Amino acid sequence: MKTKLSQYLLCGAFIIAAAMQANAQTKTDQAIETKIAGLMKKLTLEEKISMLHANSIFGTAGVPRLGIPGLMTDDGPLGVREDVQQNWAPAGLTTDSATFFPNGSALAATWNPDLAYRYGHDMGEEANARKKSVMLAPAFNIARTPLCGRTYEYYSEDPFLNGRLAIQSVKGIQSQHVAACVKHFAANNQEIERGRINVEVDERALREIYLPAFKASIIEGKAWTIMSAYNKLRGQYCSENDYLLNKILKGEWGFKGAVISDWGGTHSTVDAANYGLDVEMGTEPPYEKYFFANPLLEAVKAGKVSQKTIDEKVHRILWVIYHTSFSAGIPAGKQNTPEHSKTAYDIASESIVLLKNEKHLLPLNTSSIKTLAVIGDNATHQFHSGGFGAGVKARYEVTALAGLQGKLPKSISIKFAQGYSGAFKQHGNIINDETKPADPAMVQEAANTAKSADMAILFVGANRDYESESSDRRDLSLPFGEQTLIDAVTAANPNTIVVVVGGAPYDIGQIKKNNHTIVWSWYNGSENGNALADVLLGKINPSGKLPFTFPASLDQSPAHALGAYPGKNLQEEYKEGILVGYRWFDTKKIEPLYCFGYGLSYTDFEYSGLHTSKTSYTKADHITATVKVKNTGKYAGKETVQLYISKVGSKVERADKELKAFKKVMIPAGGSADVNLNVAVSDLAYYDVAAKKWVVEPGKYKVLAGTSSRDIKGTGVITVN
Ligand code: BGC
After folding, report:
1. What is the pLDDT of residues 169-197, one digit of tens each?
2. Starting at the edge strand that comes first in sequence, how are the strands of the sheet with 712-720 ordered?
3. Fewer CB within a 10 Å sphere, N or C end of the chain?
């Protein structure tokens, strides 16, 4: 009785607190509206239009007469980009170095939304210190093809994992009163012809695969700005796409902030203005000739764009300014703090994926090693900048070799051989040039070094010149003749550990076949080498899981299997529909090289007793699935429990299974945890194209708990009435 009473009281207190918060929010919103209305009355049409386009490479004009600042944007997503001159050359400042945060797919491999929040929060602090009001991040287009040059910037092939991370990244950035600009809206899934390609995607795939993370970042993350993509969708450029911008984003999702074009991604004045773009950005002056500058003024005067439309855009920009530069309590910002380094380190250390550890060479038994060969360009390569696209001027970046040198016992002598050259320069855009084959002299030197050591660690893979904005990779093969090097080093020393660095899937089939120990790492930020060394040494037990499928060959991958990439005559039909990533592999029963969600640990986890809170649910209910996870090995470790749902006997096409919840838990050696995973029954819906709404089918669903999409440890069945 007493507990019931205290529960009621607690519940009541929560309701009152929530109501007070909502009330305070309404008052703030009203105050902002009043202030905006006041400014709107004072602005001339010319001043309003001056706010709607770039006036420098990353900025827009304010109205000094009224004390209105411009928007000061900067790239993400790897950290706050260094300041540049008008021609993109570095500005040469001494104040613009930054923390380099791990790339998007690294963050996704942590499966840890708390880390996504910390990433956003810390980048927001650095943005404030550098006086930036809009961070052009996070970026999270779906990994439709493994070849997309920006896969490393993005998160995943799965819309749910994508969305959970996007929400927290946005919340983190905006906690610092800096606007997140989520990008690139929408269906910018390849770099080949990104500025001209027309994407034809069916409505279900659009709603179920390509839009959910955007929707989540707007509705749950409450992102204040969004960037329209370069490509066309259903015949209209995304920057002038009435359906995407007006109907879905501003209509259905109630977006109140500003739509910013990608740089040079605006193609018209009247259509773009009427179909939902708010701000035109670009690189080259003269800015007064931009579509949203003098031509827009003319269009208003000619009655082709209404004053009301202009006012709505200015309202949106002022609304963003009142949440950023004009907001109360905007923090001063911080740059390169130890806390930021710790965030970079924590993300890196949770992102590294242990792919194979057959001989238990890892964690390293340092007492049995006197000489260690460290081989490969990626042992000394830095990843904070390169290629075409956003990088950061990292205050520092620890390479893999430096990390090992700093952390291995001094009794171990390290011998380094470069093994291959990772130098790469793209000639023209669209598709990567071929890289140079192996250099026999370098390979020989590496093999000799490996032979003379007790153990060899090979650092191979790609780099940020090879994976790059504006071009896609030509195929999945490892670049720089690396396979020759790997074979030679493995033959020279059977105790060879292979660490592959990349931001996207590669064909590592030969390595999987021939090597017993494989680690996957990423463009892992300022603390890259420290995190890698700590994983190899066992100070960190690896817990990363792949955020996308590694196909065994390119033709397994859906867009490639169906000849639906890179498009013909600038038309690209997404023929695979909803079957993207593991949805395709699992439904078509194709065995990939490594599946979505895969990743090992130095310990073992045993799953048992999967059950759900009920067996029968209504459409308004929440399902709680509980599974016991026991750490049966000798190391403490983190495990990401993944919950997939599969509709039994659906009347529409369905993927074999879809990720609906996940949770990362730390379990001590010998310990166990009851892991609860929650799914709203409404999240089991498919998008009914004819009815234009989400529909939950009644009937039976399988609930699957696993360590990856293919290693399912427990199955239950529920019914939805
Ligand atoms: C990219 C954007 C980036 C912008 C500014 C464009 O080429 O697509 O992601 O924010 O440049 O650097």
Report:
1. 999 999 999 999 999 999 999 999 999 99
2. 616-617, 712-720, 699-706, 637-647, 658-667
3. N
